[in-house]
Succinate dehydrogenase / fumarate reductase membrane anchor subunit (Gordonia humi), 141 residues
Amino acid sequence: MTEVKTLGTDYDRPASLDNPRSPRPRRGGNLEKYAWMFMRFSGIFLIVLTFGHIFIGLMVDTGVHRIDASYVAERWHQPFWRVWDLFMLWLAELHGGNGVRTVIADYSRNDRTRFWLNVLLGLSMILILVLGTYTILTFGR
């Protein structure tokens, strides 16, 4: 048998690929992995919290016509509903903020622009979380 060699190619040189199981240097940690996992799990919890909130408010508590400030004060007088609504607020804010952070990372081309958009996002998230938490914990007292 004759050996066929192609002229001008590097087929006869060994490949310089790393072993697939060799350790690679870590760059930046696993932030994106954990952010991706957080989005999936928080989305599942948000579905449960939101549908439970809507179902109880509309079906069990005789509908939307009953909802006013006194209804909210009466409901938030119970620790269960305060914790429920706090979880819903915090998960929704962190879930949405993480999604916007991903959009900023995908679409901002300039590092300086990306930095300032993330700073504004972080400040707005903190402001909404502080005001929302304060409202839930002190409403009707």
User: Anything to note?
Assistant: Residues 82 and 137 are 7 Å apart (CA to CA). The mean pLDDT is 84. The helical segments are 31-60, 69-76, 79-107, 111-138.
